[in-house]
């Protein structure tokens, strides 16, 4: 019998990891050929969206990689504006951040200390609208709720607008609110559309509020590109290449755990305080494609969103410059070979 729930969860994580990645002895032998990490402390950003599920199950895997001190830093990444929030993240001793691809490009364009290292999962955002609105094009002249400019919903909705020939700066009536969440305005019928990230879509569907006009896990072209990507503090990556590779490996293993051990992962999400509702976490893990990081090229995601955001007037750099200034795929390439990707 296990002494407590933590022992049970730890046992489950270890068993799941062994099933996924071979015997513990084989993994240990492979890791012994690498030098130890340059630091045993790693700081991970933690925001309110539960689609960053790998963050919540990665701690045991990081311990196995030699990180004895895994620190979670509350950043409020989801609701903050892109540029100011990016500065806050990298100035708050955060070493790695699992964030939405669009805002990461804005950080790189503004010269922040952001290096994208890998794509994690595809499609977690959903666009809800009121009756009579059936497409993004139908949002012309309508009210669209966002927490702030350059927040993830603002960035992704702007990309959607340009793809259908709309100008997000002129054709949407943006409604920003620092006190009332856009989901609440939508539920009260005060705005026409709202783009949500887990657990928001799960809650709206449970309450039968509005209808989905874009599901990025299912609808093209959004389902063909990464939503969340792993980024590191550029200085940390430069100074700590061994630690960075070990972090990338652990995070991708954690992403696999979201597929192979959804019950364990959902429980961890609740225990970390990202949602009080286990069912929200279970639904998110069932609906978000965590199984495609081996199949998709993260550069494709950057090219796609960089073009859309340039069209929207939000990005100055071209895709090639963003890739040159703000990416490093070396660690991903090495880990893919190890994990069979």
Keywords:
D-Maltodextrin-Binding Protein, domain 2, 341 residues, 2 domains, signal, five-stranded mixed beta sheet, 16% strand, 16 helices, NitT/TauT family transport system substrate-binding protein, alpha/beta, single chain, TAT_signal, three-stranded antiparallel beta sheet
Describe this structure in words.
Strand 6 (143-146), helix 7 (152-163) and strand 7 form a beta-alpha-beta unit. The longest helix has 20 residues, at 241-260. Helix 11 packs across helix 12 and helix 14 crosses helix 15. The strands form 3 sheets. Strands 7-6-8-5-9 form a 5-stranded mixed β-sheet, with helices on both faces. Strands 3-10-4 form a 3-stranded antiparallel β-sheet, sandwiched between helices. The chain has a two-stranded parallel ribbon with strand order 1-2. It folds into 2 domains: 5-123 and 224-339, D-Maltodextrin-Binding Protein, domain 2; 126-215, Periplasmic binding protein-like II (D-Maltodextrin-Binding Protein, domain 2, 3-Layer(aba) Sandwich), CATH 3.40.190.10. The protein starts with a helix and ends with a helix. The chain is α/β, with parallel strands linked by helices. It has helices at 5-21, 24-32, 54-57, 59-64, 82-91, 101-109, 152-163, 182-187, 200-206, 234-239, 241-260, 262-271, 278-287, 298-311, 319-326, 330-339; strands spanning 41-46, 69-74, 96-100, 114-122, 126-129, 143-146, 173-176, 193-196, 211-215, 226-233.
CATH topology label of the largest domain? D-Maltodextrin-Binding Protein, domain 2
Instruction: Give the ordered list of helices and strands.
Output: HHEHHEHEHEEEHEHEHEEHHHHHHH
Q: What's the CATH class of the largest domain, please?
A: Alpha Beta
Q: Which bin fits the share of residues in helices?
A: 40-55%
CATH level 4 superfamily of the largest domain: Periplasmic binding protein-like II
Tally of domains: 2
SS field, number of helical segments = 16
The first-to-last residue Cα distance is 37 Å
Rounded radius of gyration (Å): 20 Å
Roughly what fraction of the amino acids lie in strands?
15-25%
Derived from helix and strand composition plus strand pairing, the structural class reads: alpha/beta
**CATH architecture assignment name of the largest domain:** 3-Layer(aba) Sandwich
- Give the beta-strand count: 10
> Largest sheet, order of strands side by side?
7-6-8-5-9
The shape is globular
Mean pLDDT value: 85
Unreliable stretches (pLDDT < 50, length at least 5) are 1-10, 12-26, 77-83
Main sheet properties: 5 strands, mixed
